[in-house]
Every structure is written in C-alpha cells, then in structure tokens.
Amino acid sequence: MSYISLVFMDVILPILILMAVGAMLQKKFQFQLRPIANLITYCFMPAAVFLNIYQVEFDQQLLGQLMFYLLLFSSSLILLSTILSKVFKIKGDERTALKNSISLMNSGNYGLPVSQLIFSTNPLGVSVQIIMLVFQNLLTYTYGIYNLISASKTITDIVKSFFKLPIIHALALGVVFQVFNLPLPRFVEIPLEQLAGGFTSLALILLGAQLAVIRFHSFHRVIGLSLIGRLIAGPAFALAFILLLGIEGVIAQSLLIASSFPTSRNTATLALEYEVAPELHAQIVLFSTLLSSITVTVVIYISMLLF
What we know:
- The protein is mainly α.
- 82% of the residues lie in helices and 0% in strands.
C-alpha cells in the first residue's frame, strides 16, 4: 500500500491538482475553451508526438506486435459494450454513449501526460503511449463517429477529418526523421522541446476547465456500466492479452497503464456536435476521470509489480 500511496502522490495527485487549477480558472474567468483546445491540438501535442517518435527507434516486429495487440484490445471492448447494451436492453442514444465511452479512452490530454510522468527517463514507454494515442484517434474518428453519424456526415467526411489531425502529420514526420536518421537543427529542436514541455500542464488545465462546465443531474445506469467497462474490464482485457502475447518489460507496463485511462473527452465533444445525449456523455467523462484517480493508481502499481 505504501507504493500505491507513492504512485498516487507522485503521478496522480499532480494531475488532479492541475485539473483543479483548470476548473477554478474556468469558474472564475469563463474561458472560451475551443481556442485553447485548438492551440493544444495544432501546436503543443504535435510537438510532443514528433519529439517522442523522433527520439526512440521502433523495429518492425515491435510495431507489428503493438498493432496486433491494439486490434485485439479494442475489438474486445467493442464486443463487451455491444453485449452489455443487449443484456441491459439499452437502445438509441444511450447505447451510443455506452459503446463510445467504453471503447474510447483519453489517451491524449490524460494518457500522454501520465506516461510522460511515469516514463520520464524511458522514452520507449512514452512512445508506446503515442502509438496508442494515434490508434485511439483513428478509432474515435471512424468507429466513434460512425456510432454518432447523421445523414449530413458521409464516410468520406470521416476519412478526411482523420487525415486532417495534426498528430498524424507529426507522427509521419517523426518516423521520416528517425528512419532516415535526419539531424534536427538545434534552432528547431529547442522550440519543439519547449512546446512539448508545456503540453502536459496546459492539456491537464484544459481538461479541468472542460469538466468544470459539465452539469450533473442524476446518476444514470449507463454511467455505472460505462465505468465498469472502461476502468475495470479494460485493464483486465489488456493484462490478459499482454500475457497471451508474451509482451514484457516497459512495453507491457505502458500498454497496461494505457488501458486504464478514463473515457475520452472527445466522446462528449462529438456527442455535442451531433446532438446525441451530450449531457450523458459529459457526465460519463466526469465520473470516469474522477474515479480513474484511484483505478489508474492501482493499475500503475500492478504494472510495476508484474513487469
């Protein structure tokens, strides 16, 4: 328990403090959050993604193993959410909320900062999380939007939205610079490092600000099912697949920890855009984020103990 307390104090509590700062600032100043989100999406996050990919080398076997794992892991969560919706007879917008909230996790402005704190001396752990982040974005803008899709949105629009994501371009550039061993000029590397360094704090402050504007009405049964699926079943499936595939070391630690992150804030954003139970989606994000302060701490402890 002492180690769990240490993990909570050193990893989770700093995140909660930054989120609380964001919530208090939002309550006081009522920021327009979209420009801040755009700043992170188009500036800070791509810098962090590029540098982490640029600085760590992946071999083809590792990438293949990671992609196979991610397909198994995501498919299992999609199947679980489908089964739960049928067993509990959840339909319509509520079913969409359940399926997206279990399958889509906050790998960006929650997951990446956590990984950066835990694996600050081991870029490989952060890079694994970045692969997870890119995969989650792909899943969000395909499967996630498909669940919310309306007559005005075509499959072509979904594909275009995905390829417009800045992190995809940052990832591609990072791979090109790494594969061809291209030197990065110091006058370029310095501002990139400064942007990447600012990503963690700004992303968490924004997340706190977003949670501050969520209105709570009542505890819906979909919220409980979502929390079980995302925070408990997710890590359980991940551990099973990690052991099945024989993944070890830092990669196993990073994948297990990444499986425990709360529901993606993008589920609430997309639900608002498509007007599909936006309040329910937002409440799930709130409860999932708060409860994850406990569950993520436990998963971090388990990952360090096992691997």
